[in-house]
Design a protein that fits this description.
single chain, 5 helices, two-stranded antiparallel sheet
């Protein structure tokens, strides 16, 4: 029995590009979910609205990150015992990404990626 396999390299590149785009869009979706959940401490909005960004420099390697670039972000994030004011964000807390990492929303990123990948790949 002879079997011949022909690879469609153009289609493979299209699927790889779809995965990269889906990954980048997934990170944006997580960022939006965190903002909409109003879990970040918010006074003037710098940390949430100005200094939080999705970094896609290595997305072609399967890596993206959501960075909060303020000098106090680490301190606030890792101290959930702080008494956060809740005037602007009623659900403000430390460790605001945790529900999307291993909490009640832990499947959000995977589900979003799956949907976005199918859309980007045309499946």
């Amino acid at each position: 029995m002879d079997i011949k396999v022909t690879m469609d390299n153009a289609k493979l590149r299209q699927m790889e590009r779809a995965a990269v785009l889906a990954l980048e869009k997934t990170a944006e979706a997580v960022k939006t979910e965190v903002i909409n959940a109003q879990v970040m401490p918010l006074d003037k909005g710098t940390m949430q609205n100005t200094s939080m960004s999705v970094v896609t420099d290595n997305s072609s390697k399967g890596e993206v990150s959501i960075n909060v670039d303020t000098p106090y972000a680490r301190k606030v994030y890792y101290h959930p015992e702080f008494n956060f004011q809740k005037t602007n964000n009623p659900n403000a807390r430390g460790e605001w990404f945790e529900p999307w990492i291993d909490g009640e929303h832990k499947d959000f990123a995977q589900d979003a990626f799956n949907k976005l990948y199918k859309r980007e790949a045309g499946l």
